[in-house]
Amino acid sequence: MKEIVVVGAGFGGLAAAVLLAHRGHTVTVIEKNEVPGGRARRWEVDGYRFDMGPSWYLMPEVFDRFFDLLGKKREDYLPLVRLNPYYRVFFAPDEFVDITPDLEKTKATFDSFEKGGGDALTRYLENARIKYETAVGEFLYRDYHSIFDFLNPTLMIKGARLSVFESLDRLVSRYFTDHRAKKILEYAMVFLGNSPHNAPALYAMMSHLDLNLGVFFPRNGMWGVVEALLRLCAEYGVMVRLDEEVRRIAVERKRAVAVETTRGSYRADAVLVNADYAHAETTLLNPAARSFDEPYWRKKLYAPSMFIMYLGVRKRLDRLRHHTLYFDREWERHFAQIFDAPAWPDTPSYYVSVTSKTQPDVAPEGSENVFVLVPVACNLDDSDAQRDRYADKMLTHLETLAGENIRDYIAVKRIYSGRDFAADYHARNGSALGLSHTFDQTAVFRPPRQSKRVRNLYYAGHYTHPGVGVPMVFIAAQLAASAIEAAR
Ligand SMILES: Cc1cc2nc3c(=O)[nH]c(=O)nc-3n(C[C@H](O)[C@H](O)[C@H](O)COP(=O)(O)OP(=O)(O)OC[C@H]3O[C@@H](n4cnc5c(N)ncnc54)[C@H](O)[C@@H]3O)c2cc1C
């Protein structure tokens, strides 16, 4: 039995802590913020409750598998409903489609976009299914220790099905010409911090997730997932310490021996870092204990930041759905302003979440909790004045989608962007998602699970394989717990 200290109470830290405590270790999680959950914290004010970060519950089997490892039933901790529609997509204020669980209807929608669109969708989704099953079966649930591990012949043969050397946009363009079809199949890249031109075609599997497997909503939203983990922490005796920041991981003779915080010091047989990898390496460790130096982190491609508005609105907005996406005609320009010539997007495509559509008690009677998210480049001018200007622009546009006045009904308004990600999570460059998912930042090319210099120091969380997204981070937590166990 070991004493294990986990730095950070995001999904990566909490899920790994539960698994390790289940296996008999003594686990303490230390979190700098007052509320656990990391990027998935909840913010509550005047009867409005907001999931601050993620809102799409995808890959349900990953969560089920996590509960299986504990011998528990997911539904006892995390009841789900299937959304209908899964989401609404606007291509212009007066043009929208609903994507529902009825796949035949979605094929008819694709037929309306272009001749043969429905059949093309059937073929594309079959391709996406194979990619997904190959990824889950062969790639996601294993760690890579060296390039040879990654390039072994079996994986190379199976990996060919994943098309890692082709871009997603190229793959999609082989099936579809209509811009609306392409946008529906490519939008998820934004959530992985990438552009469809730069993301490997492997990520076509994202369409298998939403169109084939479905979009779900846990009771209490993503905060419900945090609550489930906290309940498990209590059951297995994990100590979760909030509002306490880790300042240093003390290393002696190539072993982490203690974690020093703003309130004290914790002895450790092993340390698991869930906090952003770049922050931990460059701030919490002495130079001799770092696996990578500053130039390594400087050369990395970081995922975009985000401009987010949390709005409590004193009326129902009937044209919006639980998940609503707006794809502007000029969406290429938006990608260019994120990745090529950083600037505040002047023709933004964006995402709106209104969870009060499904769970009315997250807002006062007759009101909605509206979350608006625009992906933006890192390190833009993020002054109050700029935020106010941009909020105004976004509200004006949102009113065109909603088809009604919103600004006069706003009871609560909070803006969250790059400087908040940096301050609240120690996010390098204010990135919302950490490392981007380019080919050379995938699998063995992501920073390793185990420190190269400190034997009992491990990493979980979105910087590590398999990467960004709540299900991915649950997988990373399992891999980290297994690595610590293997070193017994
Ligand atoms: C706005 C937004 C929307 C998203 N939407 C989706 C979605 O719909 N679906 C989806 O699957 N994914 C989504 N994602 C991605 C997903 O939220 C993340 O990949 C995931 O939550 C990251 O979890 P993590 O545990 O790796 O990191 P984090 O959640 O960042 O957890 C790390 C924790 O470490 C703490 N920490 C940092 N430094 C220290 C320190 N020195 N001492 C103590 N604690 C420290 C931080 O405060 C934080 O709590 C979204 C992300 C964002 C930001």
Oligomer: single chain
**Radius of gyration based on Cα positions:** 22 Å
Sequence stretches where pLDDT stays below 50 over 5 or more residues? none
CATH architectural category of the largest domain: 3-Layer(bba) Sandwich
Short description:
The protein is of the alpha/beta class and about 500 residues long. It folds into 3 domains: about 5-40 and about 55-80 and about 220-300 and about 440-485, FAD/NAD(P)-binding domain; about 110-210, Guanine Nucleotide Dissociation Inhibitor, domain 1 (Orthogonal Bundle); about 305-425, no CATH class. The chain has helices at about 10-20, 60-70, 75, 105-115, 115-140, 145-150, 155-160, 170-175, 180-185, 205-215, 220-235, 275-285, 295-300, 330-340, 385-400, 420-425, 470-485, and strands at about 5, 25-30, 40-45, 50, 80, 85-90, 95-100, 215-220, 240, 245-250, 255-260, 265, 270-275, 305-315, 325, 350-355, 370-375, 410-415, 455-460.
Structure characterization notes:
- The chain is α/β, with parallel strands linked by helices and 488 residues long.
- Helices cover 37% and strands 20% of the residues.
- The chain has 17 helices and 19 strands.
- The protein has helices at residues 11-22, 60-69, 74-77, 103-113, 117-140, 147-150, 153-159, 168-175, 179-186, 205-213, 221-236, 277-284, 294-299, 331-339, 384-402, 418-425, 470-486, and strands at residues 3-7, 26-30, 42-45, 48-51, 80-82, 87-92, 95-99, 216-218, 239-241, 246-252, 255-261, 265-267, 270-273, 305-313, 323-326, 350-354, 368-376, 410-416, 457-459.
- The strands form five sheets. The chain has a seven-stranded mixed β-sheet with strand order 7-6-15-16-17-14-18.
- Helix 1 (11-22) packs parallel to helix 17 (470-486) and helix 4 crosses helix 5 (117-140).
- The protein is globular and about 65 Å long.
- The structure holds flavin-adenine dinucleotide (FAD).
- Flavin-adenine dinucleotide binds next to helix 1, strand 14 and helix 17.
